[in-house]
Amino acid sequence: MTAQISIEWTYGRPATGIDADEARAREAAEAVLDAAGVDYRAAQAEYQRQWLDMDDEARMTGPARIWIKAHQAADVALTEGWHNPSGAACEISV
Question: Is the Cα torsion angle 7, 10, 16, 20 positive or negative in sign?
Fold first, then answer.
């Protein structure tokens, strides 16, 4: 592990029980990044660089694409077991 992923709720944050949700989301994002063997900070920086260049996630490649997959994994894991799995979302950062 090169750093720790932070979870920031963008919407749907419940009043209680967030620790388990955030831990699941963090672990999911880190699993994607670790499996790809990328440095967390480098992947986030590359995502930000490509975003400024393209403003289009669909065209991103390399570590930026892995960062997107990590974000998607965190979003899914965040609401795992909820009655409404689309009831919240998060952003990830280092």
Answer: negative
